[in-house]
Amino acid sequence: MTRRHAIIAAVRSLPLVFLAVSGCTHSLDADLVSTRAEIVELQKKIPPEAPLWIHEGPDRFDSAVTDRDPGVPDFLWHHLLKKIDAMPDAEIDAQSKGDFDFDACEQDPGLYRGRIWRVHGVIGEIHTEPVSNPKVPVAVAHAGIFFDGGLRPVIFHVTRKPEVLTLRQDEVETRAVFVKWIDYKTKSGRTVTAPFFVGRTLRRYL
């Protein structure tokens, strides 16, 4: 069995994994409902010429996010969606810092925040989130979660995705901006921590 097939087999059995680890008695889909990043209204004007992420100064984006809580300021969310959707894939690839390191990022999120990383895994859930901002040239963000080879969850919002994805089977990847860590609780009461990314394109990973 190849590594990819092993990952797929593990994710297909995730309801049993959640049952064994946390006592869940409901489906994976029910658990995933709780993983959505909450877009909270927090108005702040960002100059049109601002970069993808402001790392320094009084308006630095790091000061607007708090790891472990579920909230993401709407001004930051809209800015990231608008900026990254306008970036060519070649530019995103050029800015990518490589594969995301879960353990190192948990120890020091600030070193990873606001930078583009490659993450991939088997898709677990995907849905749309409306983008009600006339300044953002996309009507919806494609939001969801996938699981890496260690069954660690990754929450993502992207502006583009494949037309069809088979849940718990297709392996996907994205090069996206790491925003923060989000804690969420399954309906069984188990707390899970996942990194949240905003990107342009979700691709099938071959």
Biggest β-sheet description: 5 strands, mixed, barrel
Q: Output mean pLDDT.
A: 84
Number of helices: 6
**Beta strand count:** 8
What is the rounded Rg?
Answer: 17 Å
Secondary-structure element order, N to C: HHHEEHHHEEEEEE
Estimate the helix proportion, in percent.
10-25%
**Tally of discrete structural domains:** 1
Going across the biggest sheet, name each strand in turn.
3-4-5-7-6
Shape: globular
Q: Report the portion of residues in β strands.
A: 25-35%
Q: Note poorly predicted spans.
A: 7-28
What is the rounded distance between the termini?
A: 15 Å
Assembly state = single chain
Characteristic terms for this protein:
single chain, 206 residues, alpha+beta, five-stranded mixed barrel, two-stranded parallel sheet, 6 helices, 24% helix, 32% strand, globular
What does this structure look like?
The chain is an alpha+beta fold and 206 residues long. The protein has one domain (3-204). Helix content is 24%, strand content 32%. The protein has helices at residues 3-12, 14-22, 28-32, 74-85, 89-95, 102-107, and strands at residues 38-40, 71-73, 116-130, 140-147, 153-160, 171-185, 191-201, 203-204. The model is unreliable at 7-28 (pLDDT under 50).
